[in-house]
Amino acid sequence: MAMKAKLWSLNGLATELGRDVRTLGKALSGVEPDGMVGKNPGYCIETALGALRRRGAARSGQPGDRAEAESIFIELEDLALEIDAGFKRLRAEPDVEKRREMGAEVGPLIGKLGAALARSHDLTPEGSRDFTRDATDAVILGPAIGEFMRICQLTLADEKAAE
Predict the structure, then answer these.
(1) Which of 18-32, 65-79, 141-155 has the highest mean pLDDT?
(2) Residues 50 and 68 in one domain
(3) Which pLDDT tens digit goes with each residue over 62-100?
(4) For the chain: N or C, fewer Cβ within 10 A?
């Protein structure tokens, strides 16, 4: 039987993580719930920890570039985890049409990853930006898009025309 992450209410998370419920509520404001616990939003512990890390980086008083870099790094890490979990869910679905429907949730995460990577490029020295863009496109975004298309059995319009 597959393990499934437990959903926690805000109060449950506050208790489990030893945090003030108001602080946790502020950190999670604007964060999409992972599900529902009764009639209330529910969050996995990883989601709550990510929100707390982002809030901590934003409030740390670090110099602008360093705080922004930390925030982007955390966002990239969270997106990578979400995309990986999404790919696992897609691979587990045997029906290709259902995989494609489910892909509507996973595909936009790759777009968000691309946007976060683009913001990270602005923090690199100007002479390194082209290399950094090329490297992230080749090593991160290209393979993620390719894997998404493979799992969902999608092809590009040009590929269909060539057949």
Answers:
(1) 141-155
(2) no
(3) 444 677 777 888 889 899 999 999 999 999 999 999 999
(4) N
User: Distance between terminal CA atoms of the chain?
Assistant: 42
Task: Determine how many CB atoms are found less than 10 A away from the CB of residue 57.
Answer: 19
* Separation between Cα atoms, residue 69 and residue 67, nearest integer Å: 5
Q: Residue 53 in 3-state DSSP? A: helix
Considering 59, 92, 107, which residue would you say is the last residue of a domain?
A: 59
**Dihedral angle at the C-alpha atoms of 81, 82, 86, 92, nearest 10 degrees?**
40
| H/E run at residue 6 | none
Distance in angstroms (rounded) separating the CA atoms of residues 127 and 147: 31
Residues 6+ apart with CB under 8 A from 30: none
Q: Is residue 33 left, alpha or beta, with left meaning phi > 0 and alpha meaning psi from -120 to 50?
A: beta
Beta carbons of 95 and 87 less than 8 angstroms apart? no
Q: Where in the sequence is the domain holding 108, given as residue range(s)? A: 63-163
